User: Fold this.
Amino acid sequence: MTDSLMIATTANDMVRIYTVSTTGVVEEARRIHQTWPTATAALGRVLTGTLMMGVMSDTLKRLTVQFAGEGPLGKIIGVSNQPGTVKGYLENPQVDLDLNPLGKFDIAKAVGPGTLTVIKDHGLKNPYNGVVPIQSGEIGEDLAYYFTKSEQIPSAVGLGVLVAPDGQVQAAGGFIVQLLPGCPDAVAMSLEETLRYIPAVTTILNSGETSAQLARRFAIGSLKILAEMPVKYYCDCSGERFRGPLLSLGRQELEKIIQEQGNIEVQCQFCNQKYTYSAAEL
Ligand SMILES: [Zn+2]
Assistant:
């Protein structure tokens, strides 16, 4: 089954629902970065959130979600360059902590206190930057806090990654449910009730539910589907893209590296693709 994302509204367009299944996306990230289970879950949650945030505006050119925490994982980055695609990395992929007292991945401890930055690039001169302190480090709660605090949109965010005993990703996905301005209290209360009793996202997706079925769980009255699309891990890097940043090192520095190593090799942090440049090519 391929991963897919769904955008829907309900309660007379007063509630917006984003749901996504990302089992394949997170497994691909695990394979590329060779993450250990706690790191797989943390990066997977960030990628899942980033995918949904990447489809929230038609004019968005690039959305970046960055967790800079003091925990052992270091920085975690998710980037969505076009609707339905995501790429990401974390500073220390080889992190695996004991489970927390609830028997879940201790993502909060692995991320640690710090800041969450959301950068929205609409192709204009200055991208929009939203910065909030990391609340719990559980990723989903932090994104919910960001929406409420920075964008003034009350939101509930659920993100989950289930890792099989062999380390592979067994199920992953999430939802973002947002109350739009003017939403009646009764609708908000009904949603709160749904959220209180909804099983963990991983439990839902692992049982075989699709993102469309997950979205239906939040329906109040009828559900209006706005879009449905496949999602994938995709890196848009190219040899040309790294030339600019390389050249900014300056002639002296580049000559020194070429003298020492014969050429310059750059590796993409998002997909591990290597690019080699000779002196002539630069
Ligand atoms: Zn790449």
Observations:
- The chain has nine helices and 13 strands.
